[in-house]
Structure formats: C-alpha cells, structure tokens
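User: Some background: our group keeps a shared notebook of sequences we're curious about, and every so often someone picks one and asks for a predicted structure to add to the entry. Today it's my turn. The entry only has the sequence so far, pasted here. Could you supply the structure so I can complete it?
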Amino acid sequence: MIIRGWAPQVLILDHPAIGAFLTHCGWNSTVEAVSAGVPMITWPVHDEQFYNEKLITEVRGIGVEVGAEEWSLIGYQERKKLVGRDCIEKAVRKLMDGGDEAKEIRRRAQEFGKKAGRAIQEGGSSHQNLTALIDDLKRLRDSKPLD
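Assistant: Of course. Here's the predicted structure to add to the notebook entry:
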C-alpha cells in the first residue's frame, strides 16, 4: 500500500500486521511506537534522534540500529557515510528472524506498550500528571484578580 501525503501513523502502528517500525527516532514517532508496543529499527538523522536511538536500543532494548553514524546540522542532506543495504538487511533480519533476541525485543516492546496504555487510563501516571497540570492552571487562573 502506498499512502501519499499525511499518513495516520498511530492507526498504522496499532494494526496487528505491523511487525516493526523503521523510524528516524524523532520523539513523537518514538512515543507512538512505544505506545503501540511495536519494536523499532532505528535510523537517526540529526538533533536528539541519536540520543533517542540509544534509549530505544541500548537502554530499553526495544529496537535495533541500522548503523547511522553521521549527524547532520540541517537534517536531510547528502552524507559522506551512507547506510548500506547490507546494514539495513542485517537490522531487519535481526528483528524479524524469529530468533531469541528478536522475541525478547518484541516482548519488551509489547510490555512497554501495555505500560503506556495503563499510564493514560484514568488513574494512570500520565492521566494523573495531566489532571494535576490542569488543576494547577485553573488555580493560577482563579487566583489572578480580574481587570
């Protein structure tokens, strides 16, 4: 399937046919993949994406790297060090081959997805934090004198 223009990424990631997500490791995409419980193949380009990649692959163990090494100041531009097709193939096979490491990565990704789901439910940590923020903003608004 080819989608032109904006794609409903959250809906796509939630589809049961999705086995992995090739991501540039932007924070929004990372959070969406984690929330969906989908393991990631990481390909950072610039800014904080290389740090996010380390969080995904080394700290949390919910993805594999393609081996991008060259950081770019302006994002998508010509590179001196290209990621070759053999590196991409290796990352895809590592995650999709059904071996023990792939199963463990998938298990951890699904575990994080369940945790993320609980966090946004009523009473969950994200729900509580957002509710506290709203309450603080209301108190701040109500404490200001009317002009």
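Suggested note for the entry: The first strand starts at residue 21 and ends at 23. The chain has a mean pLDDT of 91.
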